[in-house]
Amino acid sequence: MAKRMSKKKKEKKTAVSQGEFVELVKKAAERDEYFNKSLMAHADLDNARKRLERERGEIVKFAAEQILLKMIPLVENLDRAVDSATNAKDTNSILKGLQMIQAQFHDLLSVNGVRKIETKGQSFNPLFHEAVEVVESKDLPENTILEELQPGYTLTGKVIKHAFVRVSKKKEKED
Predict the structure, then answer these.
(1) Residue intervals in the chain for CATH 2.30.22.10
(2) Coil, strand, or helix at residue 171?
(3) Which residues, in sequence order, are bridge partners of residue 135?
(4) 150 CB contacts (<8 Å, ≥6 apart)?
């Protein structure tokens, strides 16, 4: 029987006064209040995060809508150019109309922060260019861009499409 008593955890009973008990009850209520405030703050933070995500999605949709609205007249102009080209005998007027539409597209890109990446005569930079072909050259320094095969673009400084280029390489000496 003595062994059983030693295995059991001995509980120590402490007597508290009425004043101490009231103080403990107040502290427990205060703890509960802080805990509830913490839960509410966490819920508020979660709701704010969800609201910001929803608003960001709406902003992206609105931005796309604005750009698309600006593109509609360009598409309509292109449709008119195609319609007039089917019956036109004067190719110069067709070319002039297409050049005007091309200029409108370039203006739309420019107004929205899209810039063409410069390539001609530049040194190859993998941050802006993608080398599609390397050509030996004895006249030009290595990694000089010889030709732009497809233009590249940046949007407010960030590359959104790399330029595809042909790059020079030092001609190896023949034995």
Answers:
(1) 115-175
(2) coil
(3) 168
(4) 163, 164
CATH H superfamily, domain 115-175: Head domain of nucleotide exchange factor GrpE (2.30.22.10)
CATH topology of domain 19-112: Hemagglutinin Ectodomain; Chain B (3.90.20)
For residue 159, what is the enclosing H or E element? Answer: strand 158-161
What does the block give as tokens for 147?
């030709």
Task: List every span in the chain annotated with CATH 3.90.20.20.
Answer: 19-112
Sequence-ordered list of residues with C-beta below 8 angstroms from that of 27, at least 6 positions apart, any chain: none
Per-residue pLDDT of the chain (175 residues; tens, 9 = 90+): 455 555 556 667 778 788 899 999 999 999 999 999 999 999 999 999 999 999 998 888 888 888 888 889 999 998 888 888 887 788 888 888 889 999 999 999 999 899 999 998 899 999 999 999 999 988 888 999 999 999 999 999 999 999 999 999 887 766 5
Residues paired with 153 in a beta bridge: 116, 161
Phi/psi of residue 126, each to 5°?
Answer: -65, -15
pTM above 0.70, yes or no: no
